[in-house]
Task: inverse folding
């Protein structure tokens, strides 16, 4: 069986597994990776970029290498290759858990239980929930759904299409390291620099695909395209900017503004300034848009891998005819 079909079948099975089962309640491999990366950090930590780069290379590089070894071990056995791809996809994508957590916060807000909503918000993002009112919490949820659609689903599928199982698990390792050490706290400003920059690089193609699919699948295509073009570059993150701007335009809402994150206050630019303030009902709309984008990303990734194989085969034939 060709590699493009193995990826298509395996990624589809893995995404279906995520849709039906969500993340495992216990023993999640990503959590195990986080504990291992934390152990490596305790050994390697120095307030220096070079030591942080070594930490990134050991953790992310080791994970991708393990994925490559597993792939080599099942090479030539299509059923096992599909199963491995499915297992890796189910492990690294988190669209169902993302939607579940967003809806939990939305349900609390609908019930006017702001304390419960604040309690659950850290399951979605790292910002301080204690000073947020209902509208600000709803805005934080929509922003998190948008960004994590790229980080937790689309980016992984893109790298799976590019590099198979090593791409799937390597991308999740990079993304997890960024969440652990990539923020600008005093401890990680230097040590986490390499993880943050590598995450920016790895997330670039997935973020652009997510934004493009939000334009395609959103209820306001023109608004999504306009907000992406006008406002994405104003966001401090090169990858969250396109995604959040496209979601804001697609949903007709206004994102961005002041937030508290990691013990510091940030004043972020407003995205889609002509939109209305986020309402609690927009959480469900954002989750549904995220689901559509995720499914389209699976199709786009599988089709992209097939197209790449055909282009490569055509070039080889042309080279042989010279």
Result:
């Amino acid at each position: 069986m060709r590699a493009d079909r193995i990826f298509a079948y395996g990624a589809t099975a893995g995404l279906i597994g995520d849709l039906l089962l969500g993340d495992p309640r216990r023993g999640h491999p990503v959590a195990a990776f986080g504990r291992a990366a934390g152990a490596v950090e305790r050994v390697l930590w120095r307030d220096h970029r070079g030591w942080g780069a070594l930490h990134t290379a050991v953790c992310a590089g080791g994970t991708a290498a393990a994925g490559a070894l597993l792939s080599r071990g099942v090479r030539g056995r299509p059923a096992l290759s599909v199963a491995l791809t499915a297992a890796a996809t189910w492990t690294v994508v988190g669209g169902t858990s993302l939607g579940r957590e967003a809806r939990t916060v939305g349900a609390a807000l609908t019930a006017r239980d702001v304390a419960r909503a604040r309690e659950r918000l850290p399951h979605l993002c790292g910002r301080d929930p204690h000073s947020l009112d209902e509208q600000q919490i709803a805005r934080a949820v929509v922003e998190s759904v948008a960004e994590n659609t790229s980080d937790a689903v689309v980016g992984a599928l893109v790298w799976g299409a590019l590099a198979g199982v090593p791409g799937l698990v390597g991308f999740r390792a990079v993304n997890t390291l960024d969440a652990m050490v990539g923020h600008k706290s005093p401890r990680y400003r230097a040590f986490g620099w390499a993880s943050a920059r590598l995450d920016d690089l790895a997330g670039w193609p997935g973020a652009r695909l997510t934004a493009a699919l939000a334009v395609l699948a959103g209820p306001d295509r023109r608004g999504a395209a306009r907000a992406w073009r006008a406002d994405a570059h104003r966001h401090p993150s090169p990858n969250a900017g396109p995604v959040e701007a496209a979601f804001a335009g697609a949903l007709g809402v206004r994102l961005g503004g002041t937030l508290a994150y990691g013990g510091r206050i940030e004043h972020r630019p407003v995205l889609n300034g002509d939109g209305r303030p986020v309402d609690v009902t927009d959480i469900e709309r954002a989750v549904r848009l995220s689901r559509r984008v995720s499914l389209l990303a699976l199709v786009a990734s599988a089709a992209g891998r097939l197209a790449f194989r055909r282009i490569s085969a055509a070039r080889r034939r042309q080279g042989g005819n010279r």
Notes: The beta strands are 255-261, 264-271. The first strand starts at residue 255 and ends at 261. The mean pLDDT is 93. The CA atoms of residues 114 and 193 lie 35 Å apart.
